[in-house]
Amino acid sequence: MSLVDRNKIHIRVFLTANVIASIQILPRVRPPLARVFAGREPSAVIDVLPRLFALCVAAQQTALVSAIETARDEVTPLAIQQHRITLLVIERLVDLVRGLFVGHLTLNVAVATAIRSLISDLSALGGSTQPACGCSQREATARVVTALATLGVREGGALRPGSPLALSFATLNEEGLKTTPTGYAFLSVVDDPKITNRMLEDDPTFCCCPDLEGEVPETGPWARQMTRDRLPMNPFGAAERLSARIVEIVRLCGWLEAGSRDDAAVNGIIGRYKLGPGRAAAAVECARGRLYHAVELDAHGRISRFEFLAPTEWNFHRRGPLVRNLQGAVLTAQRRRNAVHAVIASLDPCVGFTLDFRDA
Predict the structure, then answer these.
(1) Please, which pLDDT band fits residue 168 given cuts at 50, 70 and 90?
(2) What span, in angstroms and rounded, lies between the C-alpha atoms of 313 and 290?
(3) Structural domain tally of the chain?
């Protein structure tokens, strides 16, 4: 298997007649960061992170820095904490917007141009290494909100009838695969202690194939919405995850427009956990879900152990949300590949994937 293929998730759907009988997931081969980081000074590792991760760079850096600071018993100044949160919010917005429009629209020239302008405005917000002026931040965010309205996203997350996004959403609602929930679980900040306490234990498989007391909860925008708003569990699929993504985009824009002062909007975005002398973990809420880093420092302050746990490990677990969403679904010849692809895309894996179908 080539290096490119090894960095993909391979999904195989087994069918009995038109019913999905089972799903086989061959996970990606995770980068060997524990081996790469071992024995290194933390500052050298932090600097190299942007070259190791194409996505969620601010989230990866914040998680690692927060874990290292906690392991050292350092207190982070409030202004630095606030700036990190702002960068995380902006990065999450960029990822959510890119995944929303690029992943769910057939782009014409006008729409593609509007999306590029929107992402450029969002990226400019987070381009400085220094805290942004509140006035300039609000002005830039106002341009983002205007661009979203142009693309069909209204206040509160409602979609303008007839807009390309509204048409895509309607198709997902009418033709997409729906799951009837039974004991569905969502990952949240309250689960952090149980997870971080296991990351540096002796089980080397936990961060590759995690579970939470036997369950494999979903993480991401829909999980955040369901946990935050305590919505009733109804049959769900790609449309519900798409809707949650839109609501979160609008919510985070509101936080930036308000001058980053509403703590409730970013509650739990960064969690820090001391695990013992020289040992700590951090959790960061990024676009795809909750990201964890854990470190152990030696007597000289160098990294002796490092582990990370990405949202994709939960959502594409062999017993996880994707499998639960697809198991037992009835397909038609017309919607077979597209419907399954939409469910996968709604969980937004951090790497590429392949999809094929076999008879059971």
Answers:
(1) confident
(2) 10
(3) 1
Tokens of 274: 């001391």
Q: How far is the CA of 220 from the CAs of 13, 194, 261, 345, in angstroms? A: 23, 19, 23, 12
Q: Is the dihedral of CA 112, 113, 115, 120 positive or negative?
A: positive
Q: Whole domain around residue 293: which residue ranges?
A: 3-359
Cα separation, 284 vs 87, whole angstroms: 12
Annotate 210-268 with DSSP letters as a single string: --BTTB--B-SHHHHHHHHH-----SB-HHHHHHHHHHHHHHHHHHHHTTS--GGGGTT
Torsion angles phi and psi, residue 188, rounded to 5: -150, 175
Q: What is the CATH number of the domain that holds 225?
A: 1.10.645.10
Task: Please report the pLDDT score of residue 105 as a whole number.
Answer: 61
Distance of CA 313 to the CA centre of its chain: 11
pTM attached to this predicted model: 0.91
- What's the whole-number mean pLDDT along residues 145-153? 84
